[in-house]
Design a protein that fits this description.
Shape: elongated
Number of domains: 1
Distance between the termini: 18 Å
Radius of gyration: 11 Å
Order of helices and strands: EEEE
Number of helices: 0
Oligomer: single chain
Number of strands: 4
Largest sheet: 4 strands, antiparallel
Strand order of the largest sheet: 1-2-3-4
Length: 44
Protein backbone atom coordinates (compact mmCIF):
# COMPACT_ATOMS: atom_id res chain seq x y z
CA UNK A 1 0.00 0.00 0.00
CA UNK A 2 1.37 3.42 -0.96
CA UNK A 3 1.89 5.70 2.02
CA UNK A 4 2.95 8.78 0.04
CA UNK A 5 2.25 9.82 -3.53
CA UNK A 6 2.79 13.31 -4.96
CA UNK A 7 3.00 14.68 -8.50
CA UNK A 8 4.87 17.88 -9.37
CA UNK A 9 4.53 19.69 -12.70
CA UNK A 10 7.26 21.69 -14.44
CA UNK A 11 6.37 25.39 -14.41
CA UNK A 12 8.07 26.04 -17.76
CA UNK A 13 6.51 23.07 -19.61
CA UNK A 14 3.43 21.36 -18.14
CA UNK A 15 4.05 18.30 -20.35
CA UNK A 16 6.79 17.25 -17.88
CA UNK A 17 6.02 16.06 -14.37
CA UNK A 18 7.70 14.19 -11.54
CA UNK A 19 5.97 11.61 -9.36
CA UNK A 20 7.38 10.66 -5.96
CA UNK A 21 6.03 7.42 -4.48
CA UNK A 22 6.97 6.01 -1.07
CA UNK A 23 5.57 2.74 0.26
CA UNK A 24 7.22 3.02 3.69
CA UNK A 25 10.15 0.76 2.75
CA UNK A 26 11.51 2.29 -0.45
CA UNK A 27 10.79 5.36 -2.53
CA UNK A 28 10.66 5.82 -6.28
CA UNK A 29 10.73 8.84 -8.56
CA UNK A 30 9.26 8.82 -12.06
CA UNK A 31 9.85 11.43 -14.74
CA UNK A 32 6.89 11.73 -17.09
CA UNK A 33 6.37 13.41 -20.44
CA UNK A 34 2.74 13.64 -21.56
CA UNK A 35 1.76 11.02 -18.94
CA UNK A 36 4.34 8.45 -20.16
CA UNK A 37 7.25 7.43 -17.93
CA UNK A 38 10.52 8.45 -19.57
CA UNK A 39 12.77 7.87 -16.56
CA UNK A 40 12.68 6.29 -13.14
CA UNK A 41 14.88 6.23 -10.07
CA UNK A 42 14.95 4.16 -6.90
CA UNK A 43 15.49 6.41 -3.88
CA UNK A 44 16.97 4.81 -0.78
Amino acid sequence: MTEFYKQFFCEMNQNYSLIIEDDGRVAYAYLLFCEEIIGDLWLS
